[in-house]
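Class, discuss our next protein.
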Amino acid sequence: MPLPTLASIIKFPTITLSVAIALLLCQASAYGQLNDSERAMVAFIDASNAAAEAELIESVNINSGTMNFAGVRAVADHMMPMFEAIGFDARWEDGAAFGRAGHLAAELRGEGSGPKILLIGHLDTVFEPSSPFQEFERLDADRGAGPGVTDMKGGNFIMIQALRALNEVGVLQDTDITVVITGDEELSGDPLSLSKKAITNAAEYADIAIGFEDGDGNAATANISRRGASGWTLMVKGTPAHSSQVFREDIGPGAIYETARILLLFLENLQQEENLTFNPGRIIGGTDITHNLESSSGTAFGKDNVVAENALVTGDLRAMSLEQLERARTTMREIVAANFPHTSAEILFDDGYPPLAPTDGNRELLQVYSQASADLGFGTVAPVNPRLAGAADVSFTSGLVDMAIDGLGLSGTGGHTVDEVARMSAFPSQSKRAALLLYRLQNN
């Protein structure tokens, strides 16, 4: 950002001379922490922000709901030349093997001595072609609404702008950077081992992973941890009988009572675990039940005068670490195994998204980012409360890189709804912070 002149500030009658001088001193003090290359990157981002914003809006206006394969590919085609223009080898990785469109991957293998860095984004949004929310709309000087503008096309272009800034000052070609921008973050393909293979392979090669999701929407925070998101299915059997015989020694309470007892014990035994949540999202019970996993629906037939024979519950389980996740699963298995007489139960778990634990390396990476932010005059950056952050693709780097951070994208509100609004004024400031982070990781 070019320093304002004193004359340009005090021409406004609402600003006193003393306030103007204070503003200048504050700005100069902040920018005094930057070296010549960093100042040049800041100037480049300011000069190119309008053009980059236009590119972002063009991307937002391309529908890329996860299941709109052509749209997801179109967003990738829009971005690949941008990577190629600054020296990356960019390619499309087809997703047929896991039932999705695919991913954009780009690589630059410089010969510098800095760390190997993985940058992560995603092409898809939650808004399919049937959604009424299809185009960007400028609301005012600060805000713009659009499908995926924060989650996370804004982050994709913050990434691009940061890389362009490094290229502008001649240091990009010395870096070793891998970019993976997935096409199925909002609705992952199956199996996850193939869906996330591009990320895990890149993470095995990299030292540092940086995600450009929008985090909690607050530019003063970033993610150094994310809780994992996995699922569970509880299946319970009871002994069918006339309702007048319920609780009899040879009949028992039936499937629905046994299910209720198990769920209550989950609550009593696990709710004290910090940052652990376990939510039953769907329950079906009766004499005969059906369950359709693909449509998240089911049916139940039963009569009030019949003891229920079957019940099923599905839910999710979110934990801060693999150790916490396994403790919770062990407790749930033990509860499920101790059945009431004449009932039986089984619980199955799926792995889903792994947790990203708040390691010392992640904290160190946040400190580098926070210092860059402070040196730019934007204030320090604190870690997000993990209860305020969902799962994201960066979690698949857990245990594979020395450092990881996420939430460096475009802040805003209303993500995953037709009220998704970005704070467009944060686009250049977030780009500058990301550029300085990459520069300092390479040169310090």
Notes: The mean pLDDT is 92.
